[in-house]
Amino acid sequence: MDPVVHFEIPYDDRARIMRFYRDVFGWELEHLGEQMGDYVLATTSSRAEPNPKGSKGAIDGGFFPRKADWPAQVPSVVIAVRDIAASMKKVAAAGGEVLGEPMDIPGVGRYVSFYDTEKNRLSILQPLPMT
Asked: What's the CATH code of the domain at 117?
């Protein structure tokens, strides 16, 4: 079974979205800078203090800047897979549509977005091996 491991939400104004999620939910946010595409990492639960339901199942996420030439920039989830190439073939064979070629995210793994059969945008990630 391939688990949901991350969520993503687009933004138009980085400072505004960071302020909103920090103030409303208390999330820890880290802007990774231009070299990482102005991505903002979001930590949603403390690892030191379990959330009310325990930290099991809690996922973290991130925010990315909207871009005029990117498809389907909506909130989505990221699913971890063992083999991104094999999973891309499965997506296509099941009636989904892979959106471009996988990209390497330094220190994280290989990533690509896709549409499911209902035109929902999701992503798959083949994480780098844990060391």
From this structure: 3.10.180.10
Structure tokens at 66: 């909207």
Model-level pTM greater than 0.70? yes
* Number of neighbours of residue 48 by Cβ within 10 angstroms: 6
Q: CA nearest 6: which of 83, 67, 76?
A: 76
Kindly tell me the sign of the dihedral angle through the C-alpha atoms of 125, 129, 130, 131: negative
User: Tell me: the pLDDT tens digits for 54-94?
Assistant: 456 678 899 999 988 877 788 889 998 999 999 999 999 99
Number of domains in the chain: 1
Residue 123 to residues 53, 73, 75, Cα–Cα distance (Å): 26, 12, 11
Q: Which amino acid is at 52?
A: P
114: containing domain: 4-127
